[in-house]
Amino acid sequence: MSVLPALDLGLALLVVGVAAWTIAARNLFASVVGYVAYGLLLAIVWIRLYAPDIALTEAAVGSGVTGVLLVTAGKRLDAIKAAETGAPPGLALRIFVGALAVLVAGALAWVVVTLPTPAPSLAPAAAAAADGPGAGLGNPITAVLMSYRSFDTMLEKVVLILAVLGVWSVGPDKAWGTAPAPLRKAKAEGAMVFLAQLLAPAGALIGVHIFWVGADAPGGAFQGGALLAAMWMVAMMARLTEPPRIDSRILRLALIAGPAVFLVVGLAGLLLAGNFFAFPSAFAKPLILFIEAFMVLSIAVALPMLVAGPPDGSSEP
Amino acid sequence: MSVLIDLFSLAAIGAGVFFFFAGTVGLLRFPDSLSRLHALSKADNLGLGLVVLGLLPRAENPLAAFKLVVVWALVLLSGASTAQLIGRALRRGRK
Amino acid sequence: MSPSILAGLVGAALVGLGLYGLILHPHPLRKLLAFNFIGSGVFLVFGIVARRGAAARFAFDPVPQAMVITGIVVAFAASALAVALILRLAAASGKVTLDPEAWSGPDDGGAK
């Protein structure tokens, strides 16, 4: 078994190498492509750390959706034709910042090497959560997300909504209530339409599947929701559908559905099970899946709206 | 029988790895973007297909085997379409 | 060297690289990219804490892992907000920079 350490070392060098290339790349588009490749490599590192759930999230959100966000942003920035950019920094500053970065990285590396043994762990608490309040869930991550740290997970959905509100608020005043600009200006090519028509239904099915198996296997609301979001964005990129108007009632209901249902069930727990966010253990699993279904909906709607950006009024008839 | 299956897996995955290797060499060595694209898409489709073929007999159950084939089909679809899109973008850029 | 220590060192290197790019790149979108490197470096260090905390029938500590998953999504939300701000800044002023010197010209740039 001497192949695995060599593979790990190679993977580590590759990740750091691609990251360095991305930082050093000359133009924006190249660095975004580098970032997407880096995200996929990082997903393999997460697999090696026994974290398939994080690997799925990193590949879908950290690499995929963020990549779309940055490519779209780069294109829109080009369209503005804002010629004036800042000047590159001088050599002295480069050396100083380089030394600072090495210092910080070195300190962090020292911390990593001297982490305490035995390591502190909340795993017993998580095991208790998976056996008790989250009864019936085979995936401990889902048990932790939905039961042991349910308040965090609920608030994280609220953060998503706040971010969407923030993005919408940045748009010009007169455009409020209209739709965001389409994800691509030009009419889509045949190959793109073909891809969207074939991939989007299959991908949506896989997204629902990943959410469903998330109760017992790697997967869950985040990963499934991100996949559904990606499929909606593929359809928008092929111009099969356009971003909805931000004053659409359905859109707004879908956005708040996840945290709202979570909160209502949490408050019901106060009455029925004697504790905020406590689930009656007899039907904890169906209840958790019920909440998660609405969270999937909220994530699948929030991520594309974040990528689409503020309403600009340009798509008004 | 299991030795035969092992040999089959070894041969298929080995061939797949060879195609990935050849494709990567092509990606690095070919002179222009279109031929690099050609090398890459062939490696992806054929290489991954052979790796999946080699893994099929080792799948735990028919569902897992089906998932492997679906993975290959999805990569085929997205790989072919993006190659087409990149190729078209290249041709438009050259005019 | 165990895989988790190695991944932790990768995380440390990513934080260093990200910090360098964040300070030195003049382009705001490149700064955002670099900032995301710092984020994923921190997640990786947190991830090896999860891996080392293996106990009670798990090969990992599920609590930090669950928090990294929420973290990735929140980091994306923050990136999206930053992108919206950068685009609005560029549209309003015609400048793609965060450099204070560029804003202190006599004609006061994009201020309306």
Automatic annotation (TrEMBL), chain A:
The keyword Cell membrane applies. Residues 13-77 form the MrpA C-terminal/MbhD domain. It is found in: Cell membrane. The chain crosses the membrane at residues 6-25, 32-49, 55-74, 95-113, 154-171, 192-214, 220-238, 250-274, 286-308. The keyword Transmembrane applies. It comes from the Bacteria. PANTHER family: NA(+)/H(+) ANTIPORTER SUBUNIT B (PTHR33932), NA(+)_H(+) ANTIPORTER SUBUNIT B (PTHR33932:SF4). This is DUF4040 domain-containing protein.
UniProtKB/TrEMBL annotation, chain B:
This is Monovalent cation/H(+) antiporter subunit G. Keywords: Membrane, Transmembrane, Transmembrane helix. It comes from the Bacteria. It holds the Pfam family PhaG_MnhG_YufB. PANTHER family: ANTIPORTER SUBUNIT MNHG2-RELATED. The chain crosses the membrane at residues 7-28, 64-86.
From TrEMBL, chain C:
It comes from the Bacteria. It is a multi-pass membrane protein. The chain crosses the membrane at residues 6-25, 32-54, 66-87. The keyword Oxidoreductase applies. Keywords: Cell membrane, Membrane, Oxidoreductase, Transmembrane, Transmembrane helix. Its main location: membrane. It is found in: Cell membrane. Its EC number is 1.6.5.11. GO terms for molecular function: oxidoreductase activity. Belongs to the CPA3 antiporters (TC 2.A.63) subunit C family. This is NADH-quinone oxidoreductase subunit K.
